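Severity: low
Component: inverse-folding endpoint
Summary: output formatting inconsistent between runs
Steps to reproduce: submit the following structure tokens with default settings.
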């Protein structure tokens, strides 16, 4: 499961940035909040992903003044990033649909409850 989560990091980060520019810690908090704690990310995994996204021109960054004279690096999704997000989202939807089709209905039920 860890590899699956790792492989979906770019999609998760781009999805979070789709709405507004954010700084790293804010991205981590937002990801955890939106997934109700299912997805958590450390700085050690987030920042290399952000640097890769920036190298691939899917996000840009700029330094801004934050609270109490603290500077923060904000990341913004680019047009290329939006296109990539759209493509990856479609690929993931197809993948999950096809994967679920392979799992018997009796095993698709949520733990402790009905489907």
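Observed output (run 2 of 3):
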């Amino acid at each position: 499961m860890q590899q699956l989560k790792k492989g979906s990091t770019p999609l998760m980060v781009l999805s979070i940035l789709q709405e507004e520019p954010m700084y790293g810690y804010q991205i981590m908090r937002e990801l955890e909040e939106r997934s109700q704690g299912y997805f958590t990310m450390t700085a050690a995994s987030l920042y290399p992903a952000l640097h890769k996204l920036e190298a691939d021109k899917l996000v840009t960054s700029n330094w801004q003044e934050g609270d109490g004279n603290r500077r923060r690096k904000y990341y913004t999704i680019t047009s290329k990033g939006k296109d990539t997000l759209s493509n990856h989202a479609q690929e993931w939807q197809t993948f999950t649909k096809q994967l679920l089709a392979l799992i018997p209905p009796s095993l698709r039920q949520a733990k402790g409850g009905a489907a």
